[in-house]
Amino acid sequence: MSERPILLQADHLKKWFPVRKGVFSKAAQYVKAVDDVSLAIREGETLGIVGESGCGKSTLARTMMRLIEPTEGTVLFQGQDLTSADKESLRRMRRDIQIIFQDPYASLNPRQRVSDILAEPFLIHKLGSREAAMKRAEELLDLVGLSQDSMRKFPHEFSGGQRQRLCIARALSVSPKLIVCDECVSALDVSIQAQIINLLMHLQQKLGIALVFVSHDLRVVQHISTHVAVMYLGKVVEYAEKQELFAHPTHPYTQALLSAVPLPDPTRQPERIILQGDLPSPIAVPSGCPFHPRCFAAMAECASAVPEARDITQNGHICSCLLCGQSQS
Question: Does residue 103 lie in a domain region?
């Protein structure tokens, strides 16, 4: 089967935040939140981005959307350079790239009724009259499983799961081709998480949209993703198709993350890999392999040699580790 066309492609993307000692002083150091990341998202597929808190997942997703201006690198959306687009071109591309934030209540205007919240993107992008926008809002409520009575309500009148459904409806209002889900289920109860994940998968199958799913929950990522990128200190240390990555994790950091995932069978618990120490500061990234101070398989050369990203299977399984590929049969 032929591969689907690439929808969004990031090449050597960087986002460094300057650290200044005074208001008018020059930057003495940089927080390397995203450091030389290259990824591709294909039409109708889901890219899961996982890693510890502070690894740069959300910053990467927002930089790819140009909600945050990149320091270096390029982002191509359907062949158009998103990073160099002018204000008007970026506005047109915004219709095709939407985002669902982590906190549904904070991302909804508490002074607007649901009808206005859902109609606003439709009207901003001049897709039709206000009557057409109201009709579209009713269709969206039906699409995400909310009643028509919701049109007259305010955000505070809904539960957390219902508010996240409203955020999904708002993101769908302009018929986007790509939706970034930034920890969009982490603040919800487990049962509500399942409902939202199943809703997203149903909408993806029905509408053909692509998803970037940012999460620290590997169980959720395994359920929804097509491909998975594992991040550590601003870098993608492993990338592969979902089944390949979960069946054959190669980078020691990925192995440690997967060992922490609880299994539903109490008689089959994986052997935990306990990482030593905390995540280093992105201001002072360790030399060589950034993971080597915490790595259970570190060698002497890991402290000085920077591992290159290599395709260890010749089929898109990318790993950045000196050990990657050595144990491959």
Answer: no
Does any domain span residue 48? yes
Max CA separation in the chain (angstroms): 68
Query: 């993971």: which residue's tokens?
Result: 291
How confident is the model over 84-120, as pLDDT tens digits? Answer: 999 888 988 889 999 999 888 899 999 999 999 999 9
Domain that holds residue 15: 6-96+176-319
List pLDDT tens digits, range 53-63. Answer: 888 999 999 99
Q: Which of 272, 240, 243 minimizes the C-alpha distance to 256?
A: 272
Q: What residues does 311 pair with on adjacent strands? A: 318
Average pLDDT for 265-285: 79
Domain membership flag for residue 230: yes
Of the candidates 163, 159, 180, 162, which has an alpha carbon nearest to the alpha carbon of residue 171? 180
Radius of gyration over every alpha carbon of the chain, rounded to an integer in angstroms:
21
Mean pLDDT along residues 25-49: 90
Asked if 153 and 302 sit in the same domain, the reply is no
3-class secondary-structure state, position 291? coil
φ, ψ of residue 265 in degrees (nearest 5)? -95, 110
Integer Cα distance of 43 and 261 in angstroms: 29
